[in-house]
Amino acid sequence: MSLNKPNMAELFKQLGLSSDKIHIDRFIERHQLNTHAELVTAIFWTSEQRDFLHEAIAEDSNWSEVVDELASLLIRKP
Fold first, then answer.
1. pLDDT at 11 over 70
2. Angle at 60 between CA 54 and CA 15, to 5 degrees
3. Which DSSP string do the residues of 5-67 spell out, in sequence order?
4. Residue 75 in 3-state DSSP?
């Protein structure tokens, strides 16, 4: 088991998305969630991405912190 905590770029790679900062920022801008929405239920994920995110959260894996960070970044700002 790796002791290194994954970062946002690694998460995006894991999800099969571009890990370039500009693409991450653009994704976050374009995929906002309502305050009480759950990250894994968002319509923009593929089933594989959704499964990965659900597993990362449920198992409190190395990925869970960066997944939580992504969820907070996607919350729609008033």
1. yes
2. 45
3. PP-HHHHHHHTTS---HHHHHHHHHH--B-TT--GGG-TTS-HHHHHHHHHHHHTT-TTHHHH
4. strand
pLDDT digits (tens, 9 = 90+) for 44-78: 999 999 999 999 999 888 999 999 999 999 998 76
Q: Return the closest-CA partner of residue 12 out of 38, 59, 3, 26.
A: 26
On the question of pLDDT at 1 being above 50, the answer is no
State residue 6's pLDDT score: 93
Count other C-beta atoms under 10 Å from residue 48's C-beta. 10
Contact, 15 vs 28, CB < 8 A?
A: no
Query: Where do the domains of the chain lie?
Result: 18-74
